[in-house]
Amino acid sequence: MFENMELSGIINKAKKYAMNEIKIYGALKIEWLELSSYKWQILAEKLWANKEIVMLWTILMDLKLGECFKEGKINEHVQRSSQSAQEFLKQYDIDKDILNKIISCIESHHGVNKYFCKEAEICANADCYRFLHPRGFLAAFVSWAETEQNLKNILDQIEDKLDEKYKILSLEICKEELKWYYQQFKKLIKEAREQN
């Protein structure tokens, strides 16, 4: 298991690594990280999960999102983020079970049929807030509007992401909180299309 001193050192170095990736590639919005981080803390506490595992997931889950986006290989970002996280974490003496849980959180944060651990399910659900919560939804809209001028394309992208994330939700606590937002966003998108 982690020692508190060792853990804070790993987390701080992981934050620096992730922030450097954001500076270089810029695809991941800080607002998304903050929202996921806030939600995982609440979920981890309510569901008695290992907060250290979930914290490292928050930092490492999309390490290579920006790089893959720039290269036009967005579908590779989960696997490449996992590989980079494994490389980063291997320099520390982390219990194999803990390491497997961290990597599982990264690799399954887009949803799977059966989660390896409770922490992985929490991570996948927390990640959905990036698009299904008003703060994440608006950050996504602004982000896509910066690069895409066609409103129809922006609406298509956002609706696809809404549907994808809503299907991933598996925790009742998250479904209850996000269902109304999802329905309202879908309604807004429909009305925006009708005016187009």
Please summarize what this structure is.
The protein is an all-alpha fold. It has ten helices and no strands. It has a single domain, classed as Hypothetical protein af1432 (Orthogonal Bundle).
Question: What this model shows, in words?
Answer:
This protein has 196 residues and is an all-alpha fold. The chain has one domain (4-195): Hypothetical protein af1432 (Orthogonal Bundle). It has helices spanning 4-25, 30-46, 51-60, 65-71, 77-89, 96-107, 118-132, 134-147, 151-168, 172-195. Helix 3 (51-60) packs across helix 6 (96-107).
Distance between the termini: 56 Å
What is the global morphology?
globular
The chain-level structural class is mainly alpha
The share of residues in helices is over 70%
The CATH superfamily bears the name Hypothetical protein af1432
Might you state the CATH topology name? Hypothetical protein af1432
Query: What is the radius of gyration computed over CA atoms, rounded to a whole number of angstroms?
Result: 17 Å
Overall average pLDDT: 86
Strand content: under 5%
Compressed to H and E, one letter per element, the order equals: HHHHHHHHHH
Please tell me the CATH architecture by its name: Orthogonal Bundle
Biggest sheet details: none
Topology (SSEs and partners):
Layout: H1 4-25, H2 30-46, H3 51-60, H4 65-71, H5 77-89, H6 96-107, H7 118-132, H8 134-147, H9 151-168, H10 172-195
